[in-house]
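User: Predict the full complex structure for these chains.
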Amino acid sequence: MAGLMVGGDAAAVEVRDVVVRYGDTTAVGGVSLCLPRGRVLALLGHNGAGKTSLLQVCEGFRRPDGGEARVLGLDPVGDHDALMPRLGIMLQAGGVYPWATAGEILRLFASFAANPLDTDMLLDRLGLRKFERTRFRRLSGGEQQRLSLAVALVGRPELVFLDEPTAGMDTEARHTTWQLIEELRADGVSVLLTTHLLDEAERLADDVVILRAGRVAATGTPAELTSAAAIEVLELRAGPGLDLTGLGARWTAAETTPGQYAISGALDTAGLAEVLAWFASAGADVTAVNTRRRTLEDVYLSLTTPTPVGAAQ
Amino acid sequence: MIAVSLSRGHVELLQFLRDRTAVIFTFFFPALLLLLFGTIFGSTSTEAGVSVSRVFTASMIAYGILNTAFVTMGSGLAMDREDGTLKRLRGTPMPAAAYLVGKGLLVLALSIAEAAVLIGVGVLVFDMPLPGDAQHWLTFAWIFLLSVIGCSMLGIAVSGLVKNARNAGAILNVPVVALQFVSGVFIHPMSQLPDWLEKVASIFPVRWMAQGFRYVFLPDEAKVQEIGGSWALGTVAMVLGAWCVIGSVLCLVTFRWTARDK
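Assistant: Here is the predicted structure of the two-chain assembly.
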């Protein structure tokens, strides 16, 4: 496999201090990130956060106005010809012959690859077989997306760039796509995807980079991003009207509705045991226990949404 | 590379033929113009004793090639650039040349078909005899090829100036229509033009394309109607060859894979 050793040990994607400007607007203002081989990295952010611009730099469609990007150890612009056979690129939209059929388009892109996947198999996997003879312009948005994904994968890439891969797909197609991405990862393919779907990032990504206004707002695994606060809230159902003042200063507790208690504070294992012991000693009959932790959505919103005036609690 | 170019050309051709509006505009518009001009002026004869409809048929092949090569190439490229087709192809292992060769195959196929339609109208409707010797057909072949290559290259270069692909057809037709009038296609002989306009027109390839095709399809006596009283095939070759080179250089300098401001 000597042919694969060009930049063999390099990360799949390494971006250092990349800046992208459109005239006076700075779309990406100095972003660094690293995607090791065989992992899935999700770029998360609102529309206009700089996700696609950053991707365009990695794909070699534009030179960064500052900083540097290396893809499989190579320069995406200068080493374009060496890089392309190893990449799979799924663009957000456009760029497919509207009058050609799904089958014709996929076979055209397969003809560019040295060792393409079986196009029939791909059509079957993506549920596109029945549209093989349908012209692209007659496909729905989700079907076009699936074809676009097939086009990105047909050349057996080592690294794929997926720009909002499941946008416009129905639930079933979305799950098929997620499965496919998980299989790619299992096969050792590196994946860089952008999304604004939090469940997508949480399910697929090994690493998440949250972008806000062209800068990295947070980065980590989904677990790291969500577990910083461990269990945030303990909810208990018991008899109404308990006097919570005896619980101790390490917790804040409230009876949100009669018989429904919400406790926050020291909620590690020992803390949980103490809270339950206190309810037992108070003679309460606990009928339900529920813990709530921060979701990626809580983290994301707290990072990307400006705090509304008067929202402080 | 050859296989990739062929599969590109195949899809280009399918794409074109399925878009009926494009087919009708590209093929039947020049044929319609020829039928109209030929019918209106057809019965008259030129000074050299050749019917005007035959002169039109020969000259209109130049218009046909402008349509299939310059306009189709230019607007096709502007469209591919605007809708992201070029960008998507750029993100594959496809060699850059295979894109242009694929388009070139489309343009070549269309130009051959267009020439066949126009010659067919000339033969069937206006009784134009076809040249009987190989030498005239050989001349036809090289003038045709140089014209297709030159016009395609210029189409690619001009596509870079088109900001909005919707307007590409209109923009590209401005030089096409203007040059028809001053290059001896619509108005023949060119000696009717003011001297300076004749000189300006002679810079551009259309005059030489039309003159070359008249050499192929008209009797030799008709050369008295040409400027200088000869077919000047050497100049035809030189000017068309020069435009192929100029067009190629402009292509290399101006070619972009993505639309501006994106």
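Chain A has two domains: 9-226, 229-294.
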